[in-house]
Specification:
By secondary structure, the chain is an alpha/beta fold. Strands 3-1-2-4-5-6 form a six-stranded parallel sheet, sandwiched between helices. The N and C termini lie close together (about 10 Å).
């Protein structure tokens, strides 16, 4: 049974059945246009027969990671988030560009996973990752920053990215190609 996750940032979970259990975790790091992008990617994944869940990191209740917050104990919402990451066999991360980099919701979630989880490396190591953004600006800098971060964590980041903004709608053919590449890496 394989799973693929698309990550955007909000705690919205929607599952779709597939004969081969490949869960795509679609994570979003904002509750606006990137959540809409994640939802559309989930629809397209369903058309391709992929099981998927959408996780909105901005709606999880996970606090900003700091050493002081870590010393206070693992947040209540952490176990459910970690469980989604463990079930995932691949990911799509949808995030806007915040001041030329990754939004705090995504950075903080990765930090909590790295310090509180039982086997942090297994969450990302060798798993396929797709990157997507809807940004007010170009969005290229957040795509580069996410590529560096998830590559550093051992993920297999696809070369192709999905980039949208108010003047550039999602190219659904490109989105299907990215999702197909992820599915192929799931086995």
């Amino acid at each position: 049974m394989q799973r693929l996750a698309v990550f955007s940032g909000a705690a919205v979970v929607i599952g779709v059945e597939r004969k081969v259990d490949s869960m795509l975790l679609i994570c979003t790091a904002s509750s606006g246009k990137n959540l809409e992008l994640a939802a559309r990617l989930q629809e397209l994944a369903s058309e391709l027969g992929l099981t998927s869940e959408v996780l909105d990191l901005t709606d999880t209740g996970l606090p900003l990671y700091t050493p002081k917050a870590e010393a206070a104990g693992t947040p209540e919402s952490f176990e459910a988030i970690e469980a989604q990451f463990k079930r995932a066999r691949g990911f799509v991360f949808c995030a806007p560009e915040y001041n030329g980099s990754i939004p705090p919701a995504l950075t903080s979630a990765v930090a909590w996973l790295s310090v509180s989880g039982s086997d942090f490396r297994s969450l990302f190591n060798g798993k396929p990752v797709g990157l997507a953004t809807h940004s007010g600006g170009g969005g290229q800098k957040v795509l580069v920053a996410m590529r560096l971060q998830f590559g550093h964590l051992g993920a297999n980041v696809l070369g192709r990215e999905l980039q949208t903004n108010r003047n550039k709608a999602l190219n659904e053919e490109s989105a299907r190609n990215v999702l197909s590449q992820l599915a192929a890496q799931l086995g």
